[in-house]
Amino acid sequence: MTKLTTGEIIAKSLRANGVDTVFGIPGAHMYDFNDALAREEDIRFIHTRHEQGAGYMAYGYAASTGRVGAFTVVPGPGLLNSGAALCTAYGANAPVLCVTGNIMSHLIGQGRGQLHELPDHLGTLRGITKWADRINHPSEAGTRIDEAFRQMLSGRPRPAGIEAPWDVFGQATEVADPLPVIVPPPPTPDPDQIAQAVALISEAKNPLIMVGGGAREAGPEIAELARLLQAPVTAHRQGKGVLPEDDPLSLLPPAAWQYWQDCDLLIGIGSRLELQHFRWRWMPKGLKTLRIDIDPTEMVRLKPDLGLVADAAQGTRALVKMLSKSTKARPSRAADYARLRTEAEAAFRAVQPQESYLRVIREVLPRDGFFVEEVSQVGFSARMCFPVYAPRQYVTCGYQDNLGFGFNTALGVKVAHPDKAVVSVSGDGGFMFGMQELATAKQFDIAVVAIVFNNSAYGNVRRDQQTTYGNRLLGSDLENPDFVALAKSFGVEATRVEDPEGLRDALREALASAAPRVIEVHVPRGGDASPWPFIHPAPPS
């Protein structure tokens, strides 16, 4: 037994559970925890210039590794400033831990107007996390932080929150040294349901496998299932790279849409099936749906013909094992899928200049590099045409689609993968939500290449106002700074390019520099073709 403060217990629990980096901004309520982190030699602290940046960096760390990304902020405004990042982690199923404080324990609920007080601080935290709780005494600290890790890493991964009152962080008690948390195993696939799934598959002639973020650890099993069935695999955002998207059985969404029209079985693995049910919004006649998902609520939210509640890898492995015994090898359909890919690629070349710029980025970015999108004309287009070769290499904000996430998240990705290339793409509007983190990139030498597509507008809003609302523009045109001069004022090298070939040269140089860089790409206002006909295709006639 050792006498430790609440702050020390949390810090040592983080280290015991593999956390090597904490992002955040120190503040008065958190001083005792901040000091415990300062004395924990194996934890790196990266301080940011805004709480939202800290949350997004923790998200980037978690989304690109599958490990817990941790950040700490003061309560009240600090928590609220980081709330967008917690919403992203919740929507995109990432294990992000927020460690925050509260006012003095004897004042909670009194409404006295104390520094950073919220009417229901813990309730606010619980509203944007999978699980959150308060540490009321150091004797509770170990069990609370252990439960946070169990919640984040079991079942459907999502963020968790821990708060402690200002005075409790410094209180001490005799406790055992923190140990790694034992995560409960996932549910075992039901053999009877596996047999039913095999029967459902045996009747299908044109199955389509849709993978999401829940399938990122099931790549080999999904590849085996796809080859056994000669079924194509597609993904929208989170599942990109589960099957390398240059595999003969992989189809990017525009090509998969063409195949979809003759599909008779949708096999969803670790996916909300957003592409089919929200983006495509047209179902082939007689379609059956089989789902494998660790979250049982998914089977209620979008009820399939058959649902297997299981870990994606274990469930798919059990399915392949039984199928292999009863299913004859199907003839190769690689030529059919190659034709669909060629036709879709040719059609998507109409989305300019985004397609050309993305093609250049893909050619220059190493195969094992990370690409972080942003809500922008280029980001939307990337979901449709940017090939990814391994899971977690395409980092997205999931269904939150929140402006300002991209660059800050990319910094967390790079911290987690210092030896890999990391490129973020942002629009001018989104980049300015978090451009202050250029200071963090410079101070900690976080070598992200930020590509800023400057079309002097919130491009999507502007297009909608033009086409749907009689060209009545409201708040969509932007007057921007000189992004090159702005970056250089932070001590970050930057350049401006005017075309894809200019980007090719600039990106090669930036990646070779192994230092933070900004590349501004000038795009005429209104010069982006709309990718939406491919994201929301019209139903077949």
SSE arrangement:
Blueprint: E1 2-5, H1 6-16, E2 21-24, H2 31-38, E3 44-47, H3 51-65, E4 69-72, H4 77-81, H5 83-91, E5 96-102, H6 121-127, E6 131-134, H7 138-153, E7 160-165, E8 172-175, H8 191-202, E9 207-211, H9 219-229, E10 233-234, H10 253-260, E11 265-269, H11 274-280, E12 288-293, H12 297-301, E13 306-309, H13 312-326, H14 334-348, H15 354-364, E14 370-372, H16 377-385, E15 394-395, H17 406-416, E16 422-427, H18 428-431, H19 438-443, E17 449-454, H20 459-468, H21 483-489, E18 493-497, H22 500-513, E19 517-522, H23 532-535
Parallel strand pairs: 2-3, 2-4, 4-5, 5-7, 6-7, 9-10, 9-11, 11-12, 12-13, 14-15, 14-16, 16-17, 17-19, 18-19
Antiparallel strand pairs: 1-8
Can you characterise this structure?
Helices cover 41% and strands 16% of the residues. The chain is of the alpha/beta class and 541 residues long. The strands form four sheets. A six-stranded parallel beta sheet has the order 3-2-4-5-7-6, with helices on both faces. A six-stranded parallel beta sheet has the order 15-14-16-17-19-18, with helices on both faces. A five-stranded parallel beta sheet has the order 10-9-11-12-13, with helices on both faces. Helix 3 (51-65) packs parallel to helix 5 (83-91), helix 3 (51-65) crosses helix 17 and helix 15 packs parallel to helix 22 (500-513).
